[in-house]
């Protein structure tokens, strides 16, 4: 969550800088404690912005933002973890996302994100948001079947004003969670959010 907040904060700052520095190729913003942020604006016409953040002790973290007018991608790395996010029309599932996940027929992907621990191979979190038309109870049954067939133990299920959620765990660190939210005016139109953590 803290990583996501940081990425969103950086993204907002980039937008402000772009507004006030049109015509500049790059800008460096010094911090109060010796840190600095360098923003490369040389490729903004192509929808690309690169950001490099260097702490006073020398640690460096990089962010990249790109857009083709239909979708947007944000990625970052601090040498220990990497994060990437896609949203818009041309979104695809992460390569590591389970092939047997019960994605509904005709589902529309809205956003996906991946977070990886670069120090430990296989430690990652995939998050997927999508919309679909169907039966919410069947979709929840599909979640349960997926969890059980992959060795997860279902630890919680909730129904809050029609919003259904499930949480499942496997071992000490692996987990699966999903939520299904129907539209108020048409319960067959459903927004789904899924998160799968696979620290092996």
Draw up the topology in text.
Layout: H1 2-20, E1 26-30, E2 36-40, E3 48-54, E4 60-67, E5 71-77, E6 81-88, E7 108-117, E8 124-133, H2 136-149, E9 153-160, E10 163-170, E11 174-182, E12 189-197
Antiparallel strand pairs: 1-2, 2-3, 3-4, 4-5, 5-6, 6-7, 7-8, 8-12, 9-10, 10-11, 11-12
Gross morphology = globular
| Quantity of strands, as a count | 12
Q: How many domains, as an integer?
A: 2
Structural class, please? alpha+beta
Give the integer mean of the pLDDT values: 74
Describe the structure.
It is built from two helices and twelve strands, in the order H-E-E-E-E-E-E-E-E-H-E-E-E-E. It is α+β, with helices and mostly antiparallel strands. A twelve-stranded antiparallel sheet has the order 1-2-3-4-5-6-7-8-12-11-10-9, sandwiched between helices. Strand 1 and strand 2 form a beta hairpin.
Task: Using brief descriptors, characterize the structure shown.
2 helices, 2 domains, 200 residues, alpha+beta, disordered N terminus, 12 strands, Protein Transport Mog1p, Chain A
Question: Could you give a short description of this structure?
Answer:
The protein is an alpha+beta fold and 200 residues long. The chain has two helices and twelve strands; from the N terminus they run H-E-E-E-E-E-E-E-E-H-E-E-E-E.
